[in-house]
């Protein structure tokens, strides 16, 4: 397997939209949001690619006033799941955030999203809080965090 994770390029937008639409059934990021968020200076976007095919992406957002980065979205094309692509993407954004001086990564996940929860727990994230009624359908969110740069 020759999967590479690299920074996003402007020409990736259509592929990122395709992954987003295939991976999520609700609460999708629109093309406009993806374009705006991924081109922000404060964003860290990793794109997983294999032989020219985009398999998935991860988007983390940062603020100049905080040492905490936030994993805003991660998605892998359904036919490419279960191969460790998301784990590679998470490593990539975590390392990039650490390199930019951020000490913690945080995220929210739907409390019924078992694959994502398993992924985060396997990658060393710990749940520290819950938001009730967080998503449009009333589902709660679990908040997870991980310390970066600990090795
Ligand atoms: C969640 C998601 C990103 C995982 O991507 P992935 O590339 O399949 O994940 P990986 O192959 O790196 O798997 C890493 C771990 O995640 C867990 N995992 C992944 N898919 C799983 C599934 N279908 N069921 C249960 N656990 C799963 C496992 O613990 C796995 O470790 P293992 O291979 O040792 O069992 C992917 O399923 C996806 O894009 N889902 C839709 C979008 C989404 O929900 N994003 C998260 C929003 S917070």
Write the layout of secondary structure elements.
Elements: E1 4-7, H1 13-23, H2 31-38, E2 43-50, E3 53-61, E4 68-76, H3 85-99, E5 104-110, H4 114-122, E6 126-131, E7 141-147
Parallel strand pairs: 4-5
Antiparallel strand pairs: 1-2, 2-3, 3-4, 5-7, 6-7
The protein binds coenzyme A.
The site of coenzyme A has 20 residues, from strand 4, helix 3 and helix 4.
Question: What this model shows, in words?
Answer:
This protein is α+β, with helices and mostly antiparallel strands and 151 residues long. The protein has a domain at 4-107: Aminopeptidase (3-Layer(aba) Sandwich), CATH 3.40.630.30. The chain is built from 4 helices and 7 strands. The protein has helices at residues 13-23, 31-38, 85-99, 114-122; strands at residues 4-7, 43-50, 53-61, 68-76, 104-110, 126-131, 141-147. It has a 7-stranded mixed sheet with strand order 1-2-3-4-5-7-6, with helices on both faces. A hairpin with a 2-residue loop joins strand 2 (43-50) and strand 3. The protein is globular, with a radius of gyration of 15 Å. It starts with a strand and ends with a strand. The model has no long low-confidence stretch (mean pLDDT 95). The structure holds coenzyme A (COA).
Q: Which architecture of the domain at 4-107 per CATH?
A: 3-Layer(aba) Sandwich
The overall strand count is: 7
Indicate the percent of residues in helices.
25-40%
CATH homologous superfamily grouping of the domain at 4-107: Gcn5-related N-acetyltransferase (GNAT)
What is the terminal-to-terminal distance? 26 Å
Rg, Cα atoms, Å: 15 Å
Into which percentage range does the β-strand content fall?
A: 25-35%
CATH class of the domain at 4-107: Alpha Beta
Largest sheet: 7 strands, mixed
Arithmetic mean pLDDT: 95
Number of helices: 4
What would you call the structural class?
alpha+beta
> CATH topology of the domain at 4-107, anyone?
Aminopeptidase
- Main sheet: strand order: 1-2-3-4-5-7-6
Task: Provide the list of bound ligands, each named once.
Answer: coenzyme A
The residue ranges in which pLDDT falls below 50 over 5 or more consecutive positions are: none
Shape: globular
User: Could you state the order of secondary-structure elements as H and E?
Assistant: EHHEEEHEHEE
């Amino acid at each position: 397997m020759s999967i590479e994770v690299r920074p996003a390029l402007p020409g990736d937008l259509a592929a990122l939209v395709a992954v987003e639409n295939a991976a999520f059934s609700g609460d999708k990021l629109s093309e406009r949001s993806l374009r705006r968020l991924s081109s922000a200076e404060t964003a860290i976007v990793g794109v997983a690619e294999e032989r020219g095919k985009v398999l998935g992406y991860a988007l983390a957002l940062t603020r100049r006033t905080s040492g905490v980065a936030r994993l805003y979205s991660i998605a892998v094309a359904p036919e490419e799941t279960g191969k460790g692509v998301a784990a590679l993407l998470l490593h990539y954004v975590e390392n990039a955030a650490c390199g930019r001086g951020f000490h913690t990564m945080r995220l929210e996940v739907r409390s019924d999203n078992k694959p994502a929860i398993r992924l985060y727990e396997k990658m060393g994230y710990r749940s520290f809080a819950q938001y009730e009624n967080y998503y449009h359908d009333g589902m709660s969110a679990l908040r997870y965090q991980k310390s970066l740069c600990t090795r």
